[in-house]
Amino acid sequence: MVMHIVDRRLNPGSKSLENRQRFLRRAKALVQGAVKKSSQDRDIKDVLEGGEVTIPLDGMDEPRFRREGGTRDMVLPGNKKFVEGDWLPRPNQSGGKGSGAGEGDSEDAFRFVLSRDEFVDLFLDDLELPDLAKRKLAETESEGIQRAGYATSGSPANISISRTVSRALARRKALRRPRKDEIEALEEELANCDDPTRRRELQALIDALKAKAKRIPFIDPIDIRYRRFETVPKPVAQAVMFCLMDVSGSMSEHMKDLAKRFYMLLYVFLKRRYRHVEIVFIRHTDRAEEVDEETFFHGPASGGTLVSSALVAMNEIVRARFRPADWNIYAAQASDGDNMTSDSALTGQLLTDRILPVCQFFAYLEVGEAANYTFDMPDSSLWTLYERLRNDGAPLSMRKVSERGEIFPVFQDLFKRRSKQERVA
Amino acid sequence: MGSSGERLFEGADWDFHTLQRVHDACEEIARKELGLDVYPNQIEVITAEQMLDAYSSVGMPLFYKHWSFGKQFAFQEASYRKGLMGLAYEIVINSSPCISYLMEENTATMQTLVIAHAAFGHNHFFKNNYLFKQWTDADGILDYLEFAKGYISACEDRHGSEIVERTLDAAHALMSHGVDRYPGKKALDLRAEEKRAGERRQHEEAIFNDLWRTVPNTKTKSRTTLSVERRRALLGLPQENILYFLEKSAPRLQPWQRELIRIVRHIAQYFYPQSQTKVMNEGTATYVHYRIMNRLHQQGRITDGNFLEFLQSHTNVVFQPEFDDRRYSGFNPYALGFAMMQDIERIVSSPEDEDREWFPDIAGKRDVEGVLRDIWSNYRDESFISQFLSPALIRRFRMFHLHDDPAESAGIKVDAIHDERGYRRVRRELARQYDVGFVDANIEVVDVDLAGDRRLLLRHTTVKGAQLNETDARRVLQHLADLWSYDVALTEVDGTDKVLKEYVISPRAAAVAA
């Protein structure tokens, strides 16, 4: 009998992918909860690696009628010493166990591995940059193709048959190409004709028509038209995020750690979610400098504190590189809130006059010592200043953080997707 | 025995020519020596990842999409990655041609074993066993699954995936009660099924309206209350196939929802024989591969080394841990099935006096293959064990029967062991463990309150005092109520019709049915 061997190894894998996505969608709330929980006690770098999460099976279960209790009979292999009529003690009252197919209650928590993408997606789900309003044609980026009429050259796959055929028809008509039935009618007449003169005439006519038909092709290369496509630039929203971090001596290691975690998260969020987001890293002591991400996250620095220096630097960069008319500008600032008293006025002025008017959103994160509870923290000079500005209606969001575990909730809170009217407080 | 002596392969490597040679060599033995009658074979080579994929769609090459398969997949993938679970060497599908999936990681010896096991053992069983003949349509299954997949995804496009998902959830919950347990009028013809989907719908809707015309909110004066018998007859009650009942009689389901229920029901029915023949099916396949591999070795077509490799995996497959072993999780169907097949071979070819007394029909009959083929065709696990489990085998497995009555404070009673007094009882009890009619709860639709609030009445007749788990029962009944669209009541009664428990569940507001 014939046997077929089929090599399926090269078939596209992940046939289960769609089912898996459906499952994740269905379990979204649960998985998201688990992801957030598991991300709290992990390093941000590890968060990005994905990993195993455990979700309660409740709500994901597939109920079936199943029976329990009652008298049970079972046949087992491997009798060693029992004889008929022996009594065995019950194994400590755990009714369900060992009854064979009792798989139902054995998996009340469900563990599985999320891929890196799934993990981060779920983690960052529902987050977005607020008020991403200014859209402009980016110079470099063009995406999307669109039909744009017909062309005389192109790839064979793009031949427009209807257009080609109608052009051929028009040409054949214009050049009076003899039709097939015309010739056939004459041939039939010739077959039935006995008069030799008439026959000769007919034969000549047929030959002439045939020759003409041969000269005028049914479809000529000049008839062929191709569908033309054009790439169309699509408007994209350009955005820039300024990360302003205080690295002065008053910031303890713990505070720097908190700030860095916050920025790391912000960085991941922006990189994954937005293709057109530029990130500018500015760190400051009493002087501010623009640095690359490596230095920003890992480079050591120390010194006094002048918050205004960072704002000046940001302002200059905005003026030099990011025209407010074209760019959505965001800023996130992290500091312990210490600032030279003499600097307050300048800082406030810079913010109100220069920075906030061009910003869509300005988030301020105040980091505190671990021992302090957030609500106990006395309001710092910066906090007091910003609070006043906010009360005047500036688009400022402010949060205090003193524990690692708070970073994630605060971050989620700041960037939660909101309706148009709502503003982050 | 044919062209002997020529090696089929050397070492562990193989290519497609090797597979072809192996298949042909196995086929010769399977046909000439064992007299097997199989569907044409199709062997598909797949990767481990594809094997995992196949696991999560109940082993079928194509299946409709549903989140529960994704859950299954996520779970299996996690345990596979952790090394908790090995993958099967093969999956075989009851279809014509019979498709066997072989993993690419297998060595040449393993591929030979798998071909002998699946492509001949299981294949013969699928083609010849009466349950499979009666309930499954090997020619049509792949086309039907294709149809089901397309139909369900079309429904998702047309009606939204949420409602489709809810309907399927509900149908899945009732899947175990969506099979016909007794042969009906006709065997399943899935091809015609697919073709007729449309016209049948219309016809049924007509019939269906007729039925509900008796609902008394019509203006007609003469309120003909149907007699109980007439009503039950019209609705085809009592009905233990709950999905069938819903498909035909649920008042507010859309036609496409009825079709979805029908699809789930057909698939449940397709797998029904497999659940009744685990021991026999694996026993047959294992016995067949054992015979074929031994013969190949005898013919010198596989080396001693290959043969030892085979023996090692064979021994693992038929390993039966004892009840007090940590690895014990019930009888291993491979072990029990294979042992019984070999035992029958012994009884047929060289019986003892005891065997002649217990099995007068087959003892010493000499035609081993003939007797086995007959058994493979005409039994299922329950009847197979109650007929052919021999005292010798009960002794070898040292089987014993425990009786656990919760009312008995002394503990669990050892009711029978492997001795003269116990053989029959052990055998009867073991056979009952494999009786699906006994394993699934006996739940029937008994009546519908047509004149009143359209409440659907079900009855669970308990056996030996085992009642439904309440949490799960409520959830399943919730699904049932959603499909039915009116209240559903389930009564649990014991053998004397004494009511043990009553459930009444109302459909959810945003229910499945429109």
Automatic annotation (TrEMBL), chain B:
<dbReference type="InterPro" id="IPR057008">
    <property type="entry name" value="SpoVR-like_C"/>
</dbReference>
<dbReference type="Pfam" id="PF04293">
    <property type="entry name" value="SpoVR"/>
</dbReference>
<protein>
    <submittedName>
        <fullName>SpoVR family protein</fullName>
    </submittedName>
</protein>
<feature type="domain" description="SpoVR-like C-terminal">
    <location>
        <begin position="442"/>
        <end position="494"/>
    </location>
</feature>
<dbReference type="InterPro" id="IPR056174">
    <property type="entry name" value="SpoVR_N"/>
</dbReference>
<feature type="domain" description="SpoVR protein-like N-terminal">
    <location>
        <begin position="13"/>
        <end position="437"/>
    </location>
</feature>
<dbReference type="Pfam" id="PF24755">
    <property type="entry name" value="SpoVR_C"/>
</dbReference>
<dbReference type="InterPro" id="IPR007390">
    <property type="entry name" value="Spore_V_R"/>
</dbReference>
<dbReference type="InterPro" id="IPR057270">
    <property type="entry name" value="Ycgb-like"/>
</dbReference>
